[in-house]
Every structure is written in C-alpha cells, then in structure tokens.
Design goal:
- The protein is elongated, with a radius of gyration of 17 Å.
- Helix content is 40%, strand content 5%.
- It has 2 helices and 2 strands.
- A hairpin with a 6-residue loop joins strand 1 and strand 2.
- The chain has one domain.
- A two-stranded antiparallel ribbon has the order 1-2.
Length: 73
C-alpha cells in the first residue's frame, strides 16, 4: 500500500495544479445582452447557478449560463 501512496499523491497534486491554472487563466464570460464582463469569482444566487454554473449579470440583471449566453426562461 505504501508504494502506491507517492504516485497517487503526485497525480493528485498535478491534477489540482492543472485545474487551478485553467481557473486562473480562463477568459471571463461576457453578457450576451449588454456586454458586461462577468466576475471570475462567481457568487451563485440560486441552486441552479450553484449546481451548473451561471451568472446574474451585474449590468442588466439577465440570467446567464456558465458561458455568458442568455438563459431561456
């Protein structure tokens, strides 16, 4: 069991590093309606946004998906 611990730990650290790099360097979403740039750190306003991503635009109040496209009601 001990011989598998170090490779698993190295894999976990490498995976975490890649995920952090993707989060930090991703292009911010822009609102499709008003063009306002959405914050990188999002604060979900409802359970759907918390589970699947998405934003409430600070510029116009529109509901957006995780990529900045208008959500259909």
């Amino acid at each position: 069991m001990e011989e598998a611990f170090m490779p698993a730990l190295i894999g976990a650290v490498a995976t975490a590093a890649v995920l952090i790099i993707f989060i930090v360097f991703r292009k911010p979403a822009k609102c499709e309606k008003c063009g306002a740039e959405q914050p990188k750190v999002r604060t979900p306003e409802n359970m759907n946004q918390a589970m699947w991503g998405g934003y409430t635009c600070p510029g116009c109040g529109s509901q957006l998906d995780a990529r900045g496209k208008l959500k259909k009601a």
